[in-house]
Design goal:
mainly alpha, 20 helices, 73% helix, elongated
Length: 483
């Protein structure tokens, strides 16, 4: 009775703390800050359009971008006309960044770079009267307005420094500089700069296209696996690939609540302590990356200590790795099938995640927000920051989160409620643990895919590697956007 009272008290305190933390996050009145990642995402469609226009007409016709004898601004173009692309940029700005003067000016700069000057004056007037802007903002608006009127700006370096400070790409800044040179009558210099911008943009678009195609391959493969799941399940069972099958949890089921609640309490308290420590060390360290890495390591260590202290069955002398099935040989089919389990599980994760993102956007009416740890990659200063973030996101998080949420929590919930409800409950707790209300649906879906991979393969290494691949692919996409 005393043990149950302690578990109930821990759970109650943990739930109250989590509810408070999520409420604080949701009700935050701080003005959001536009990041370099926001700027690069806004640039993506215009850069694709610009790369399309840079192709020779015969090549454009051959690969089906448009009829070879049609205008580059023909509405039949795959990406539409420049006017349509700019309209899409304005819509994104108004939907996601209406509060941001910086993102408003980036949208205007993109319109000027694509030669759509007619809409710029309307957008500039929408920024408010000059008296409401500070000195630097007025200078930026004045120079952009001059360029929209096809007049030589007095000091274009003001705009260039503004865009550079926001993390705008060399492509956007070079396109604008070329426009300025053209207005100043320096047509040769303008053409050279325009060509340099197009060459750099071509390489960028090829890289982004390769990432999109690779994602599509895994998405299609994942959909095929989902559609053929009933047949595949029966075939795997016939071949003896039973995964976790009828194996029961090697952990103490009655202490599941105690372990998870105590971990959440440590999670909440450590965030406060680490935040205070980073504030004190602020002048000496890069707070974000070091904080993420430290918190991730502490949370992982706490989960292992709690499982070992409260979660182990009395008299069970096996190693924790053996109990978790944290060995490649534990995978159903052994070494020969291990790579297939990982690739198939990753494809399944991609398919489920893509669908979940669309559902999330349909419900919220907004685009997916990146987790704060992922956004920090856009702000990393130097190699040390990058190494810390990569270690936290691609190593610590996959290993420790899978140990707690799949290896321990799911196994115990599975014994009590069965595989499907166990997967759902553990995935929900996994999503809640990220304290990210805007991404709850995608996080739940990803957690479900990780758990399903564990259930089918029988080895915890499979969801750990899939988790690491998922986080790494997200990092690659972010770094590619910033490249």
């Amino acid at each position: 009775m005393k043990s149950r009272a302690i578990d109930g008290a821990l759970a109650t305190i943990a739930v109250i703390l989590l509810a408070w933390m999520m409420a604080v996050q949701s009700s935050s009145t701080d003005t959001p800050t536009a990041t370099a990642l926001d700027v690069r995402q806004l640039e993506l469609q215009p850069r694709l359009w610009d790369a399309q226009q840079a192709l020779p007409d015969d090549i454009r016709g051959t690969i089906g971008l448009t009829d070879s004898d049609s205008s580059v601004d023909d509405p039949n173009n795959v990406l539409g006309s420049a006017t349509e692309v700019v309209r899409g940029v304005y819509e994104q700005v108004d939907l996601h960044y209406a509060w941001s003067f910086e993102m408003q000016t980036v949208g205007i700069a993109i319109a000027l770079a694509l030669g759509e000057t007619e809409s710029v004056q309307r957008r500039i007037s929408g920024l408010g009267p000059p008296s409401e802007l500070d000195g630097s903002e007025r200078d930026v608006v004045f120079e952009l307005a001059a360029l929209a009127r096809r007049e030589a700006p007095q000091s274009f370096v003001v705009v260039d420094n503004h865009l550079k400070g926001l993390g705008a790409s060399t492509w956007l800044r070079s396109k604008l500089k070329a426009k300025v040179l053209a207005v100043e009558g320096k047509s040769v210099e303008a053409a050279d700069l325009q060509e340099e911008a197009e060459d750099a943009n071509g390489s960028y678009v090829q890289k982004m296209t390769a990432l999109v195609l690779l994602t599509m391959v895994f998405f299609v493969l994942g959909l095929l696996l989902l559609l053929s799941a009933p047949w595949l399940s029966r075939a795997l069972v016939r071949r003896g690939h039973s995964g976790l099958s009828i194996t029961s949890s090697p952990f103490e089921g009655k202490h599941t609540m105690r372990v998870v609640a105590a971990w959440f309490l440590f999670y909440a308290c450590s965030h406060v302590v680490i935040s205070l420590a980073m504030m004190l060390l602020g002048p000496f360290v890069s707070q974000g990356p070091l904080s993420i890495a430290t918190v991730s390591l502490l949370h992982g260590g706490a989960s292992i200590v709690l499982i070992q202290t409260f979660g182990r069955l009395e008299g069970d002398n096996r190693s924790l790795g053996e109990c978790l099935r944290f060995r490649v040989a534990d995978a159903s089919g052994g070494w020969g099938s291990f790579i297939l389990w990982v690739l198939g599980g990753f494809a399944l994760t991609v398919a489920i995640a893509v669908v979940a993102v669309f559902v999330n956007e349909a419900i919220r009416g907004d685009a997916l927000d990146q987790q704060s740890s992922i956004q920090l990659f856009a702000q990393a200063q130097g190699g040390a920051d990058l190494i810390l973030l990569l270690t936290a996101v691609c190593l610590f998080a996959p290993v420790f989160e899978e140990i707690l949420f799949r290896g321990f929590l799911y196994r115990n919930l599975r014994d009590r409620f069965g595989p499907w409800l166990g997967l759902s409950l553990s995935s929900f707790i996994f999503a809640v643990a990220h304290l990210d209300m805007s991404n709850m649906i995608p996080l739940f879906a990803i957690g479900f895919a990780f758990g399903l991979s564990y259930e089918r393969s029988g080895s915890l290494w499979v969801p750990v590697i899939i988790h690491a691949l998922w986080n790494s692919s997200t990092v690659v996409r972010i770094l590619s956007l910033l490249g």
